Every structure is written in C-alpha cells, then in structure tokens.
From TrEMBL:
<comment type="pathway">
    <text>Purine metabolism; 7-cyano-7-deazaguanine biosynthesis.</text>
</comment>
<keyword id="KW-0671">Queuosine biosynthesis</keyword>
<dbReference type="Pfam" id="PF06508">
    <property type="entry name" value="QueC"/>
</dbReference>
<keyword id="KW-0436">Ligase</keyword>
<keyword id="KW-0862">Zinc</keyword>
<feature type="binding site">
    <location>
        <position position="201"/>
    </location>
    <ligand>
        <name>Zn(2+)</name>
    </ligand>
</feature>
<keyword id="KW-0067">ATP-binding</keyword>
<dbReference type="GO" id="GO:0016879">
    <property type="term" value="F:ligase activity, forming carbon-nitrogen bonds"/>
</dbReference>
<dbReference type="GO" id="GO:0008270">
    <property type="term" value="F:zinc ion binding"/>
</dbReference>
<comment type="function">
    <text>Catalyzes the ATP-dependent conversion of 7-carboxy-7-deazaguanine (CDG) to 7-cyano-7-deazaguanine (preQ(0)).</text>
</comment>
<keyword id="KW-0479">Metal-binding</keyword>
<feature type="binding site">
    <location>
        <position position="198"/>
    </location>
    <ligand>
        <name>Zn(2+)</name>
    </ligand>
</feature>
<dbReference type="InterPro" id="IPR018317">
    <property type="entry name" value="QueC"/>
</dbReference>
<feature type="binding site">
    <location>
        <begin position="9"/>
        <end position="19"/>
    </location>
    <ligand>
        <name>ATP</name>
    </ligand>
</feature>
<feature type="binding site">
    <location>
        <position position="186"/>
    </location>
    <ligand>
        <name>Zn(2+)</name>
    </ligand>
</feature>
<comment type="similarity">
    <text>Belongs to the QueC family.</text>
</comment>
<dbReference type="InterPro" id="IPR014729">
    <property type="entry name" value="Rossmann-like_a/b/a_fold"/>
</dbReference>
Length: 219
C-alpha cells in the first residue's frame, strides 16, 4: 500500500519544511490550510502558491469561527503582539487552534484514505504554546483514533529540533534557498526575511544565523 500524508500547511518556514519532508518520505502528499481570519491573509496566498508550484493537492478550510471565539494578536490587527510573562504564553497563542486544526485535518484525511497527518509543531522552540507539546500530540493521536475508529499517525518531524536544525533539515532536503525566499513566518506579513522585529522573525533569523555559522565551520 502506498504511504500517504496530509500536511497541515500555513506557508511558513516550519510547515513548508514539513511539506518537503513529506514529499521525500511519502508516495502521496496533500496539504490543508485553515483560514481563521488570521492577521495576514498573505500567508494563505503563500500556501496556495507553494502547493501549486509543487502540484500538491491543496484544500483551504474556512475556520472563521475560531477568530470569533478566540480574539488575540494573531486574529486582530488592533492588538499589539506581546511576549508572555511569568510563564504565560504570548498573546499570539490562539486557544484550541492546533486541537481544532488537527481534528479537522483528521476528518479530511480519513475521507481521503490518508493515515499520516504531518504538522510542524515543535517543543524545543514552542514559544510557550501548550498545544505544541509532544504530550498533547500523543494524547490527541489516541483520541482521534478512538473518535473515528481509524488509525492515524501524527508526524512531527520538527518536535525535538530547534530553528537552526530546521534550517539544516531544509538544506538537506535541497530547499534552503526556497524556504528562505518563499515562505511567510513574519507576524507583520512580510515575506522571506520578514520584518526582523517580531518574535517569529527573531527566532527565524537567529536560527538561520546559527545554522549558517555551523555549516561554514564544518567546511
């Protein structure tokens, strides 16, 4: 039986690296993107463009209800992005986002006869988001299996690596330059290198700098 995977895909650095990882490791790959009226619609356009370039069947799902239920800095342009203090997650954390995204992805995957769901969550650089933890993914995997009487495997290729390692993975997959130029991670909606000031850009650029220094030292 051919292995198949559905990638939860935002068009950002992590999910795009996961898409390329899935393309290497599975015979059949599809992608799913969620429109929850996020701060910048540009990321949806970015996801559509990347999927189209690589002939990946791609579904965009309307999740506008999430915006209504959980207003925060990722879903409201009038809220300033703030880093969490005292152990609290930053105000870019959307309650229930990964729970809902992975649950809806599982529904779609089952309808398509796909068992593997690939997501770019990472505990090493999880920025205080509780739904990026390995324990949550494992728990949800069991729940989805039981809820649908179907065997799912939630693959998390980035779970135990940092941003520098994520850049290294993209490079090993032959896609370093592509990910640099064609993905959107910036909270302010700027493609590629981004604004350089938001938490996502700082994490992304620091990881790239660390990886390139490591690569240069090894040569």
């Amino acid at each position: 039986m051919n292995k198949s995977a559905l990638v939860v895909f935002s068009g950002g650095q992590d999910s795009t690296t996961c898409l390329f990882w899935a393309m290497k490791n599975f015979d059949r790959v599809e992608a799913i993107t969620f429109n929850y009226n996020q701060r910048h619609k540009a990321e949806i356009d970015c996801a559509i463009k990347i999927a189209s370039e690589f002939d990946i069947p791609h579904l965009v799902v309307d999740m506008g209800l999430l915006n209504q239920l959980a207003p925060n800095a990722l879903t409201r342009n009038d809220l300033e992005i703030k880093v969490g203090e005292g152990g609290e997650p930053p105000n870019t954390f959307v309650d229930g986002r990964n729970l809902l995204f992975l649950s809806f992805a599982a529904v779609v995957a089952k309808q398509k006869g796909i068992n593997h769901i690939v997501t770019g969550v990472c505990e090493t650089d999880f920025s205080g988001y509780p739904d990026c933890r390995d324990i949550f993914i494992k728990s949800l995997n069991v729940t989805l299996d039981l809820a649908m009487d179907y065997t799912f495997v939630i693959d998390t290729p980035l779970m135990w690596i940092d941003k520098a390692d994520t850049w290294e993975l993209a490079d090993k997959l032959g896609r370093l330059e592509y990910v640099q130029k064609n993905t959107l991670t910036c909270y302010n909606g700027i493609m590629g290198i981004g604004c350089g000031e938001c938490p996502a850009c700082i994490l992304r650029s620091a990881g790239l700098k660390k990886y390139l220094e490591k690569k240069e030292a090894a040569q």
